[in-house]
Write a structure and sequence with these properties.
The complex is a heterodimer of chains A (629) and B (304). Chain A is of the alpha+beta class and 629 residues long. Chain A contains 18 helices and 23 strands. Classes of the chains: A alpha+beta (629), B alpha+beta (304).
Chain lengths: 629, 304
Amino acid sequence: MRIRHFAVLALLALFPSRALFAQENSPLDLTGTWRWLPQEDERDRNPGAYPGDYRGMPLNDAARMRGDTYDEEWVSSSPLLACRPRSPGYQAKGLDPMRIDEVVDPVTRQLVAYRISYEKTPGDRMIWLDRRKRPSQYALHSWDGFSTGEFEGDTLEITTTHLKESFERRNGVPTSFRATVIEHISLEEPYLEWTFTVIDPDYLTEPLVRSATYVRAPTLRLPPYPCQPEDTEPGSKYRVAHYLPGANPYLAESGFKYKVPMEGVRGGAETLYPEWRAKGMTLAPPATVEASIKPVYSDDSTRIAERADAQPKRAPVYENAEALHVAGNIYLIAGAGGNITVSAGGDGVILVDSGVAATSDKVLAAVRQVTQMLRPDDTLRDNTSPFANTWQATHAFPDPMIRMIINTSANEEHVGGNEGIRRSPMFQFLGYRDASLSLQVLAHEMVRQRLLDSNAPEMMVPTDTYTADKYTMYRFLNNQAIQIFHMPNAVTDGDSAVFFRRADVIVAGDIYNSEIYPPIDIDKGGTINGEIEALDKLIDMSVTEFMSEGGTMIVPGHGWISDAGDVGYYRDMLMIIRERIQSMIDKGMTLAQVKAAKPTMDYDPEYGRQPGVTARFVEAVYRSLKEKK
Amino acid sequence: MIHNTLTKRTVGLALAAALACIAQPAILRAQAGGRGAPPPAAKARAPIDLTGYWTAVISEDWHVRMLTAPKGDFGSGAPGVIEMPGGGKIGTGPNPAFQGNIPYKPEGAQAALRWDPAKDEAEGNSCKAYGAPGIMRLPTHLHITWQDDNTLKVEADFGTQTRLFHFNPPPRAARLDYSNATVLPGEPAKVDAPAGTEPSWQGYSSALWTIMGGTGNFRRGGNLKVVTTRLKPGYYWKNGMPYSGNAVLTEYFRVSQLPDNSSWIRLTQIVEDPEYLTQPYIVNYHFRKLADGSLWKPTPCSVK
């Protein structure tokens, strides 16, 4: 009796303190609708900074060159980028009102996440507060990225990675897809103070710290934002608006109008600190708005390709073959040289590409891992009890059966594992009893020819080939059609893109790499024009879910899972570089002179960090254009 | 028997949990000292460390903060120079500050257009842009030290200025009474300057820590709130953007770290000045911590 008494008292004592628990999980009430206050950098926000205005930004020369060659027509005329939303590295400088809601664990009622909706962003931005791990480096990047948050005192600190390439100012200053954004949010009712810091190893020499203030707007409702890119004329050809290096006539406009010396307008870390004022006060602003500005780019960021080339040669290390989900029943195995795509299901496993030879054991282990991620179809029952059927199927697994390999190219990083996988007992191909219908390894005929020409091991060479523009598998495999598209004269003359129709996944092979220039091989039939046409085709085959994000997933030959927005950026980058090199050829420049002029300098921080990649790419573009291939 | 054992164990656990919860310091109690004892000094209670040398990092409103902008440049260029698409030339309407950064009334904007640096210099007012609402916006280094246990000293080498933040005993915090679900309001913090305080460039600053966290799943931290009154009229920027002698400056100092281990002050400034402003003027500024005082270079006030 006495014990029961104590129990009641103890439970009663708990009541007042339960509320404290709830508070500790959420020290600030960030929820509600907020409107921005225009009391800082107002002209940068609306209508946007003048061309070449980099005041207050610790940019490197690569970023300046990106900005100098930017033409705002590019984004407004691009069907993919016209509705490009703002990223966290700029969003708080935008004009968007926002709404913040709590996501609460239904059981513990603890705060799990904040959901932020901006007027002009796709869906909701999630800020996870439940200490979840960051996704794989091979996971999809998005406009909002992946954000985790943690409270320190009265401040919410947010860390965001996995961002798409975006911008830091609306005049073309880029933010790399490698950038991390750190945000600090504090509340002084009714004001929300939002500091956002961009750490960008590609385009900034030090963190760019900026801030914004929002005020509560309880009666504000976010309006709908049905952004639809403009219609285009029938037959009109897409072009990327941009200025050739040194040709932008508007770079003095900001200095002239704000009466600021060009050394200040051009930005750079030294211009952010008090020591610069004494120097700045002695300099004169441009005398006219038409003053001719011929930028010189010479800092460390312009030597990234040279530094990559100078790295001592090391044998590649393949520590992990990592499996991650792409869409539907399609998975990616990354870290095995080239990317490997896996279709897994009741019909077995279809592999697109096989990685390098040295990783075959790791790839087979990853394939096992993928197949164990699958769960039995609950509607299928056989002779065992429903429970035993489900339990055994989810706890004891047969080795998966690999039915075929499709090779997207003859590159060793994509075909090197063919032999190891074919020799594995897991390889039980489609035409098992009939060698004439083997369908063990399928590729375009030119892949077979290239491998035979290079005396590749017999087991590496495709057993089956196609020559048509489009090849459709004779039956659905794993409940979906597989179509293979020949992409003539892209990286080589034998490239294929593989389309898993139901999962809506396209495997691009080396036609698209998220982090390096395409390895165009002129001697094997590759050309820059064919490469760009192939990327156009990938984009045409794709549908984005909303505002150039999501929808069709595109697996690159190397790098992270992408979508049409990423491929659009990549295609546009190639179009810009093609025009630059063509203009140099038109001036009679030799290959050596073109290489010395560094026509890719501003993109090298993103795509030129691997040895030899940039020089090979520039030469391929030059030869393509010079030899009219 | 088994039932009895479980019951005893359950009750024991419940009691332990209840005691643990009661003993946990609540957020809102963090300011208070022990019952009956005087609260510890401000220096001992500091939830963040503001001391050391810091440098302004000017990444926003750059041309009006780093340089001396032309007269009438409210952040959007000199009057009539910049045109808004579909909105006419900025700085030329009935309120020249419209579409600028500072929410001036026409009276404030007109006062800005009367800026005369030569007159300021001749009248011994070269420090008008270095007052408390101005100095933190300028390209300066800060040196922050404890003058005593309850006074934080903020020196700026640009214009050789000194601000003193006076901590009062912490006010009684708000309290939540869960028995009847009501909030008992705390007492307001004392921010008034002592009687007879003469107006000055730096005014009189009252300071208060807000301390949060340290329990549950969020880290201890907080901010320093400083309210400054008794200001002499001065300028926000060096190009004569004015505030009146009635302006009240409220600031929040916070400290954060970035992944490169750099420490930063995040300063929120809110100016209320009904004489010149249509609404509070709110901006954030950033200072990065320096390893030492090697960049410290005191310079006199200048109207240039």
